């Protein structure tokens, strides 16, 4: 894809700071560096998001995450944890439409990154949860 910034990085058309590369995947530092070591793991094949990944490519990408995450953690003894995030769609804060996974080292509670999960457990009856689960389960065979 000619306008994709990640494709340009993969094709060496623009500079990047690559930390890992093989035939299928490239990992490089995110320019924003939300926290030091913030790395993106990107398939070399252009797919927009999780919904365009097939099982083989997803497995290939997923198999690289632990290796890259371990290297990032070992690179800085101040890292106390890590978020691994995949955003899909504008509503989910995806800003580059080439599938990628963020690996975000965490240093402390003030490191300029947060996630908030609201608790709506009191809003659903057991029957409503059963209905949601059954609907999702019924769609599994369609993939």
TrEMBL record:
Superkingdom of origin organism: Bacteria
Database matches in Gene3D superfamilies: HIT-like
Entry-linked InterPro entries: HINT, Histidine_triad_CS, Histidine_triad_HIT, HIT-like, HIT-like_sf
The HIT domain, residue ranges: 5-115
Motif extent (Histidine triad motif): 98-102
Protein name listed in UniProt: HIT domain-containing protein
Species the sequence originates in: Carnobacterium inhibens
Phylogenetic lineage: Bacteria, Bacillati, Bacillota, Bacilli, Lactobacillales
């Amino acid at each position: 894809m000619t306008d994709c910034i990640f494709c340009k990085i993969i094709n060496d058309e623009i500079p990047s700071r690559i930390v890992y590369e093989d035939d299928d995947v490239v990992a490089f530092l995110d320019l924003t560096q939300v926290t030091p070591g913030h790395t993106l793991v990107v398939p070399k094949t252009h797919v927009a998001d999780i919904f365009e990944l097939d099982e083989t490519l997803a497995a290939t990408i997923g198999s690289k995450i632990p290796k890259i995450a371990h290297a990032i953690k070992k690179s800085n003894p101040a890292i106390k944890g890590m978020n691994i995030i995949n955003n899909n769609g504008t509503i989910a804060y995806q800003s580059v439409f080439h599938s990628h996974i963020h690996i975000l080292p965490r240093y402390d509670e003030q490191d300029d990154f947060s996630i908030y999960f609201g608790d709506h457990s009191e809003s659903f009856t057991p029957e409503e949860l059963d209905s949601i689960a059954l609907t999702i389960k019924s769609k599994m065979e369609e993939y």
